Amino acid sequence: PAATPLANAPRGLAPSAVIKGCWQLGGGHRGEASSDRTSGAGAVEDFDAFVDAGITTFDSGPEACGYGPSELVIGEYVRRRGGAEGLMLNTKVCAGFSAQTSSPASVRAAVKRATSRMGGAKPGLVQLYWHRYDQQGLADAALTLTELAEAGEIGAVGTTNFDTERLALMVDAGARIEAHQIQYSLLDLRCQNGHEDYCVKNGIAILPYGVVAGGLLSDKYVGVPVRDVKVDTSSKGKYASVARQVGGWEQVQRVLKACRSVGDRHGGQSVANVATKWVLSRPGVPAVIVGARNAAHVDDHRRLFEFDLVADDLAQIEEALEGAARPTGDTYAWERGGAW
Predict the structure, then answer these.
(1) What is the distance between the alpha carbons of residues 47 and 44, in angstroms, rounded to a whole number?
(2) Nearest to 279 by CA among 206, 194, 339
């Protein structure tokens, strides 16, 4: 299913309501060998299962953002498919590492390179990441992407992993930002510390990733003692660190138990679907990014749209969240050395 465009979004950005996240194709997510389809022919072939399920938007990025060859994998899929018609190919410009990577010319070159790697089709959304806030050129980079969008070279301008202050800096400079990709889940509520309100007020769609915390928010871990949790992928390592910030494995289990109970009331919906549906129910969220090592969960993704959370469900989930250590920091501040 397609996402519902935000009423106040400048261009009515509307990706598929579930976006296939391709960070898992970057090389650090192989996990168990028996289920690993993060490289080679398997990685390319799996895109068909997602498209058949209506998941027609893919989110990628360059090596500088940890995505490895994922743009090339998408490009190979587009080539085999015979084109990108009906697809939305999203990627990133990763800049702000140095003056050399932060100029308007380098931004334009990065977009050109990504377009070529993904098969030549116009990117639907190009999201700017800025590595160092003390590196000059942020507003100019966002304005350069705005110029490319207005010229029709890219579909829309997005950002990823900024705090509210820097997002506002770009907006106030005149950048036409239509989406912000950030981490948001039942374990990570930092978006609610003013960032969510800012995005909604300014017509910026929130595209959350990490909604199932690298798979930790799934039936697989309900009632499982922490000693039996195998941290065997980059994403699990990332979200295990997040879990420690909010109360550890005990808090994760509170959330899992609540989601399992809610899922049972809705015909056995999975924990992952309940956790994902909660994020989709938040203001300003038209779609969620779900990373995938393979296509094993596609059928479960289809079921995501067979139910809606009701007041009792939301109340039970909120009760589970009361046991968490609530964040005080802004989005992506902790990752940059700030407070959680």
Answers:
(1) 6
(2) 206
